[in-house]
Design brief:
It is built from 15 helices and 3 strands. The protein is mainly α and 396 residues long. The chain has a 3-stranded antiparallel beta sheet with strand order 2-1-3, with helices on one face. It starts with a strand and ends with a helix.
């Protein structure tokens, strides 16, 4: 469930943000772990996807690319933001850019302007910008974030593109089976009822189903429609999604891959912050929301150990946040002082492994799904026509 919090941290002033948590206590604990003092908290209203209100999302990657190009061309930050605001045509995006520009003109740093612009910029992006303000390397921070987001989007696109064909195949096959069971079979059942005679057992079952649909078709259709609407509503509820994700995590093969994907995203985000100059404890607190709820407690324990002076590799290994490859890379990073780079390399390794696994899985799953759908549709057709074949044989 999502919770809206208002909190204070250091000299940042009052800040509003949103967290995913099991309950209000968990949300408060996450905020405290990140160094905030919670002032107010309330559950965020989650409306179904058919809500008519639509808010245009801020094109963050495009914004970073354009701002980086203007800064590399020699414009000052204020001039670059003013240029982006003037050329923008979309009202919502233009309003956000104008707010950022106004904050900069008032003397606030860019991270403060982003945080108070009302556009809900990702905390990782704000943290990267905030770290660059102390080092004067804003272009490098923007470039790193563009690379980070591009790589994360690339992994997501691979997973989505690999799942499109199986979903379409299952959908079309399901529609064909529904057409056969709810339209064709009932009409065949009337024909065989008029002809009479002995039918095979499976054909009698199929014809009995057809007669049942003929007599109770409207009630069945209404029940199926109600079931689909209920499922559609459930999928819009955060609690149901969390239970579904937890169920997937309990599956041995899929759960292990989800764990690797979570760690890859965690390492990439943490590596980007460390390379940008963010202290390790602060960076760990910022990437908490990227992990599954079951892993956040382990991260909190690891963060506490690191704060007490323990090695990063040792703390993460003790709390189940490493793999054999990741552990060796972290130790190399500790010896060489390139922890951020080693974490990004670890993330790349596991992202490539995840992409290969998805490709192998879809290559195996697609033909199996085609065979299953073909057997189901073919079985229904054969059972419908089997009595006709027998009748033709008896006539001969």
């Amino acid at each position: 469930m999502r919770y809206e919090l208002k909190a204070l941290r250091g000299s940042e002033g009052l800040t509003a943000f949103v967290l995913d948590a099991v309950d209000a206590g968990d949300a408060t604990a996450q905020a405290v772990a990140q160094g905030y003092t919670v002032i107010a908290i309330k559950a965020k209203q989650s409306w179904p996807v058919w809500n008519t209100q639509h808010k245009t999302s801020f094109p963050l990657v495009l914004f970073c690319q354009e701002l980086l190009a203007l800064l590399d061309a020699g414009l000052a930050l204020v001039e670059a933001l003013e240029t982006l605001a003037e050329k923008e045509k979309r009202p919502e995006v233009k309003k956000t850019l104008e707010k950022i520009f106004a904050s900069l003109c008032e003397g606030h740093p860019l991270s403060y302007a982003l945080r108070h612009s009302g556009a809900n910029f990702p905390p990782l992006f704000v943290a990267a910008v905030h770290a660059s303000e102390t080092t004067g390397a804003l272009p490098e921070a923007l470039s790193r974030y563009v690379t980070y987001q591009t790589q994360m989007d690339g992994v997501r696109r691979q997973v989505v593109s690999a799942s499109i064909y199986p979903v379409l195949l299952a959908g079309v096959g399901g529609l064909v089976m529904l057409f056969l069971m709810f339209y064709v079979v009932p009409r065949f059942s009337h024909i065989y009822a008029d002809i009479g005679g002995d039918l095979p057992f499976m054909s009698r079952l199929l014809m009995g189903w057809g007669q049942f649909i003929s007599e109770h078709g409207e009630a069945m259709f209404g029940g199926i429609l109600l079931l689909l609407m209920s499922l559609f509503y459930l999928f819009t509820r955060p609690g149901f999604k969390q239970h579904l994700v937890l169920a997937l995590w309990r599956l041995p093969a899929i759960g292990a891959r989800l764990h690797l994907y979570q760690l890859a995203r965690f390492y990439r985000s943490l590596g980007m912050l460390l390379r940008g100059g963010t202290p390790v404890v602060t960076a760990l607190q910022m990437v908490t929301d990227l992990l599954q709820l079951s892993l956040r407690g382990q991260l909190a324990l690891a963060t506490a150990s690191i704060r007490e002076g323990q090695f990063i590799s040792q703390s993460m290994e003790r709390n189940g946040l490493t793999t054999p490859v990741a552990l060796r890379m972290l130790r190399v990073g500790e010896r060489t002082g390139k922890m951020g780079e080693m974490m990004e390399r670890t993330a790349s390794f596991y992202e490539e492994e995840t992409a290969r696994w998805v490709e192998r899985f879809t290559k195996l799953f697609e033909p199996l799904l085609m065979v299953l759908i073909g057997l189901l549709i073919g079985g229904i057709v054969v059972l419908m026509y089997f009595p006709i074949f027998e009748l033709a044989g008896s006539i001969q």
